[in-house]
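Q: Start with the shorter request: fold the first protein.
A: Done. Sequence, then structure:
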Amino acid sequence: MTNNDAYQYDYDDTKQTLNTTSEERLMVMLIYILSFFTSFIGPLIIWLVKREDSPFVDRGGKDYFNFLISYFIWTIVATVLILILIGFVLLPIVAILNLIFTIIAIVKASNGEYYLPPLSIKFIK
């Protein structure tokens, strides 16, 4: 049985907490913290290196990239909507939500909880 088989979890349950090690929690926290500095490369490296070792890091990385892709799409939509003036309101809202949900994800990861921010589309399952 591989390490990934030891944990079975439901992707619809975002409030599920596992008995995770401090290293696993730290790696998921680093995925989100590095997103402030390198939104793609830093989190991708951590996820690719550690995803085989820990289902918690694997799910945390998948949740982060679903969040990143989704909010990139929402930013593009808001930018296009600037043409009809709605985007001037939506673009700052999307940026603020991105910051807030990243901070919440860091706190949830430090508590060993899964967290998929609202408005995230599950591209990677």
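Q: Next, the second protein, separately.
A: Sequence, then structure:
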Amino acid sequence: MPIMVPPRFPTINASPTVGAVTRNFGIGDWLWVTSFTAFSAGVGFAIGKPIRRPTFFYAGALGFLMSYLGRYRINEYKLLGYYPNPSECRWAGIEFKELRPPIGIEP
């Protein structure tokens, strides 16, 4: 479903590819993905008493997928201008400013 409201912050890339969004990941994003993956794998090992190893890998893979897709969405919204993006604007040489007031529940 397309987003119908105009962006609240400057747009960096109007049509970002998967590579562009993944390249936009910062150290904090990768740290979040790694930590969440490790935590979920640990929980999978702890609760998977009879079959610990498969549960460990399954929970780790599920944790990686959930955390990566969550960070992917945030970084895509940063490039599209729907999430605050001061560092991306500085990198692209664009002035960071709020283009419109927030509507409803927006970051």
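Q: Describe the second briefly.
A: The chain has one domain: 18-92. Helices lie at 18-23, 27-47, 52-80, 86-92.
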